[in-house]
Amino acid sequence: MAFDIDMIKRVYANFPSRIEAARKLVNKPLTLSEKILYAHLWHGEATETYTRGTSYVDFAPDRVAMQDATAQMALLQFMQAGRAKVAVPSTVHCDHLIQAKVGAEVDLQRATTESKEVFDFLGSVSNKYGIGFWKPGAGIIHQVVLENYAFPGGMMIGTDSHTVNAGGLGMLAIGVGGADACDVMAGLPWELKFPKLIGVKLTGKLNGWTAPKDVILKVAGILTVKGGTGCIVEYFGEGASAMSCTGKGTICNMGAEIGATTSTFGYDESMERYLRATNRNDVADAANAIKEHLTADPEVYANPEQYFDQVIEIDLSALEPHLNGPFTPDLATPISQMKQEAEKNGWPLTVEWGLIGSCTNSSYEDLSRAASIAKQAVDKGLTTKAEFGINPGSEQVRYTANRDGLLKTFEDLNATIFTNACGPCIGMWDRVGAEKQEKNTIVHSFNRNFAKRADGNPNTFAFVASPEMVAAIAISGRLDFNPLTDTLTNAKGEQVKLDAPVGDELPTKGFDVEDAGYQAPAEDGSGVEVIVAPTSSRLQLLDPFPAWEGTDLKGLKLLIKAKGKCTTDHISMAGPWLKFRGHLDNISNNMLIGAVNYFNEKTDSVKNQLTGEYGPVPATQRAYKAAGIGSIVVGDENYGEGSSREHAAMEPRHLGVRAVLVKSFARIHETNLKKQGMLGLTFANKEDYNKIQEDDTIDIIGLTSFAPNTPLTLVLNHKDGSKEEILVNHSYNDQQIEWFKAGGALNIIRKNANKA
Predict the structure, then answer these.
(1) Could you name the CATH architecture of 553-754?
(2) Tens-digit pLDDT profile for residues 215-243
(3) Active centre residues (catalytic)
(4) Collapsing DSSP states into helix, strand and coil, what is residue 677?
(5) How does pLDDT run across 620-642, given as a tens digit for each residue?
(6) Residue 754 burial by CB count (10 A; 0-12/13-18/19+): exposed, middle or buried?
(7) CB neighbours (10 Å) of residue 520?
(8) Residue 183 CB: number of other CB atoms within 10 A?
(9) What CATH superfamily is the domain 5-40+59-315?
(10) This prediction's pTM
């Protein structure tokens, strides 16, 4: 029986009436996305229509998922909420704190020793509050969720931007910060601006070397890293139906890289096959009973332009394999053009590593298709010119792949099998020689390739591709190798060509596993004690943030004017900093150290207006805080792009930053700032970014009458004594303004819990 089957049946029981109520109100056929949204309204059946991109709506998600790095802060917040047990099914997955270095067995043992304190904390908190706990080595959160918890038509939130992976099973699965997860686990509604809708029609059928990964690499090239912001992407068409469930998951997963709220596919036979293969016949049967509600109304896909805000069409039969990068996941290059693009841009052509895995591509099908290339190489007398690493997605995938000989095939090609964990994808990779910061190229099947992300080296040129393409390029050792046309020289000096990959959508002998790594919580957790040592460097109980003082904010110092791309990796780096994710003060020492200072083109070097000297960003901000002076951060477009990590909002809040002013925000980061009682502001005129000077002291006027849709005024007090006023916008609604006034949403939750 599936996890939480009774909850799933309750959701399905409500679907027909809720969708019918919504269809009557909207008075038109509904997309799948609209059906799921209207079926999960907090107050039940729809009583009003909502305007896409404008209306704030309260939803009731079915479940919450957290990975170990973000779960620490989410659960530290939940511990303050005054609740005895989570209100919806919730899980914690230990996948981020395991560093790839030697190989699975050694690396996992080292991680469980080094992070024992954190794993013990997460295990005990989960046990106390009724949360399912997946132990280190159990697998990557999103693969484990797809195998065990995702279900067609469901809505879930997760404290990781790639929660969207579950769209491969027809869910609306949305990445959020820990404060949002805390709300839902505490039994409160979850607020989201009703998304706009992008429809992607897939015609034709994937063939040869082209994989589902190439679909989203193509879409990323079309929409760019912010083209999906505020939107749900819904895929449909004959090409979608012909694709595997895990292939659909890959496409949805990387929707995070275009800024999409989430992505999804309508329920079909591939999803049914996957549910049954993963021992969820009961879910498949329940879904089949209402399957007409688990996809869009027929009129929608027949005339998509009438129902979506934007429609993209891709012919899969003509789609080429792609390599995206370097340094951004939307720089899309078809493999046939890579040679000329690489030469034109001076990208290093020698590939030093090929890496397969991550939450995007670590399914059985992914491994089987890549293994077919590896087996060809062995049979044809080829060896890998690049080093080669594999991260299976879950213990179930690893065990089954090992049983079926796939892992041995990789090992025959001298590949290293790493732990079932994120590893290099999130910077948890102890790569030999990375500290030399030499210019080099790697290819991987991950989702992100920002500078420094995988190995900490700013000169590593990382390119994103499908697992089978990664295998081929690792064997060739060349970025400009096109396996569709090029040959390789084997040990006998013969010219050989790699055939197109083949693989199994699902294991022919079924999935198998001895110990999946799941720990069920106690029925009654009231007697479970959660211990956090006051001297710990890894964990720190939270103190409430102070409430707004009730006045306009004056005398704020400019901390940094960030130039260009400023992702959550730039604001709060991962890699070695992951160990401090449960200790707010310690991890705040990485605040904005990756952001480029507009005024000197350097990272982690800003002017301290109190001393006139340049120094690290965190140290400068701590000096302002010690002096009782607030500050402001200024940023560029799509500020906060990337991971959902709320540390990027909590660290500035903790250190005394009062406002973040940018040209535009990524959705999750803007929400995280609001949840923590920060001011997230945007320039009314983007050109006013150029008016911010290095020595500015800034006043924010209008807070005493802070109201929705009403701009605020910033006074820029320049060093020469002159002043300028600029208008700034915000997207706060009434509830979010109350969060600001209270000093954060959690302060309101705690206050209400105490009243109860």
Answers:
(1) Alpha-Beta Barrel (3.20)
(2) 999 999 999 999 999 999 999 999 999 99
(3) 95-96, 160, 448, 643, 645
(4) coil
(5) 999 999 999 999 999 999 999 98
(6) exposed
(7) 12
(8) 26
(9) Aconitase, domain 3 (3.30.499.10)
(10) 0.91
